[in-house]
């Protein structure tokens, strides 16, 4: 008997219904009854009274029944009348007839995809219906079998949150119009949390037959890492979390699939470069002791740096050989650039298909642009007539809007200049410590250390340490700027949620673009470009600062750009995954460590989980778009970048799924028909990637000088790269160098990387004609490549329609059928009304019933 009582108690505590077991809990509010909280108590009384006036039903769990004996839980239920009223207001689409349009043709070779597929009941948790915006006056038009289950839990919690966000917490006789909405009550501590409930525990099914077990199915078939090779149950994700989260996971999965093809191409290119090393004469000449070992190069810094032999850069020349005689950079960059265009175009088609399947085709016009943010309503006291609705609505006057916009712009500009200052500081660090590294490695006391020093050059040591310092600065600036960006966006008071997200998106992406990519841009396009030559070096802060501008390796700065890219990109991904997975887990463990598991109620379990903020998806998109920039803007320097991104994203999909399912409270369902402003940002990054990769191949790599030498300056009759190294170097008489720059070893003839006339020539140390030929070839290459790639890009975009023809046909057919069914419904309704009127007039003595339906049945 005691065991049965315990089981009954556990079942009651783990329920998602009121105490009567009939009314479903649609939302939970929690609060603490503070001793000094009389003002908060008054707010709660007024707020809850206004919620009851709005038609919601409330039930309170006393703190004595809570696990910590401190927290009250207010359970909220929305009855049918409230749901029907607000479904009409929000124009929520509901089913009126089961769809007779087939899903599509069978996939050929379906047995190949069978291991990756999920059960049909998980992929399609509900049948396809024809839907129409809900109309309270046409209830009998819709397929309402059971009013309690007609609106799914995600729609119910969305409607309740709409009421909560607009409900006032003041008495009607007062004029405090700004005191409304659950957000303000959460901010001032009146309530501690507000959230809808998960339907069950994620590790076991719900024992109540009236309740779903969708969370359990999501965890079993989606969130576990062992399911990494399975397709995502997008329809179930959409049904449980709403369309906005569903669109995010659809985009992330599609992006990861496209990364697979880019990663394969990158691996093929890199492998081909490694295997073709033996055919690369340039690298062989650099590593050859008789050629590269006999060329003494000019010191890379003043005084402390010694002379060095060219074969000491054998390691970097091996990597640079991937872009050697076989034009591997060009061969790899074109397919990856085309894949970016195909990814964006095919995603538009996939997005259009989801819009149709999820009833989002006309969503933006109907809802997002008409729903005003509660914060806008409360903070904007001025009113004006809306030309569309012909109703008075709040607005922000133009002078105030301009002032707030200017303050916002100045703030963003200040933080961007702060990034530039930090990057300048890192550059100064590179210049300052290079001489120290050179001196340490020159004075290595043992042969073993000398061997390590020969592999880890001063340039590589400086680049690695500077990259780590830069990464730490990036993370610190991100931490502070996130809060600043939210503050200035709140200050601008955007009118709608869509406008708010777009404004914040642009600010954050602009900042992070500069923050993450500026160091890579410096290495790719500025380092080694303003060095000067021996006897006339360029210094960062003047000659007496002794901070001589950095030089690149003889083969260019590609290996340093790759080092910078790998450290920043990998570091960001590792830190992001740790932060996403470990922090929620530790916080939830800390909150629930003292819980009495036997009597741990459903609302208390969810209360101890992490809150999913309104900007939760924003950070997920931002992380992926920054990664997209790394693998597109600089793919010419590191073909394996897509492979790193693919490995990360396979983990990212499951980490996000696990986090949503197990570590976060159930978010309020929200609608979205696309990925918003991120679509335009991806297009801009794709266009910019064409320019950056063209400049990397022309100016950062050594591809163009090799081609010019091969076809214009090779002395022999056979077109080979033999002799290229000597041709690409110039000689300098070290005795002419100023005293401040003279190395401690003394003066000997040295070589340096440039195309200048030798000492004794009538145009001593000025650029040769070969330099100008190479420069002209670089500019011509950039112009031709950009135009070719852009033509191909826009041709592909034109060739692939954004909306598949099948989807267009289905949309037209569904609209036609909806109009037909509505017409038939109205005709039938009119016939009934005419019949009622005719019979009542013909037999008034018979028809005495007051109800219209009774009239018709009695008279007939």
UniProtKB/TrEMBL annotation:
Membrane topology qualifier: Multi-pass membrane protein
Domain Anoctamin transmembrane residues, every copy: 237-814
Membrane-spanning ranges: 248-275, 410-440, 460-481, 508-526, 624-646, 681-700, 779-800
Entry-linked Pfam families: Anoct_dimer, Anoctamin
UniProt keyword list: Cell membrane, Glycoprotein, Membrane, Transmembrane, Transmembrane helix
Main location as per UniProt: membrane
Subcellular location: Cell membrane; Membrane
One Gene Ontology term, aspect cellular component: plasma membrane
Domain Anoctamin dimerisation stretches: 17-234
InterPro entries tied to this protein: Anoct_dimer, Anoctamin, Anoctamin_TM
Protein name (record): Anoctamin
Annotated source species: Salmo trutta
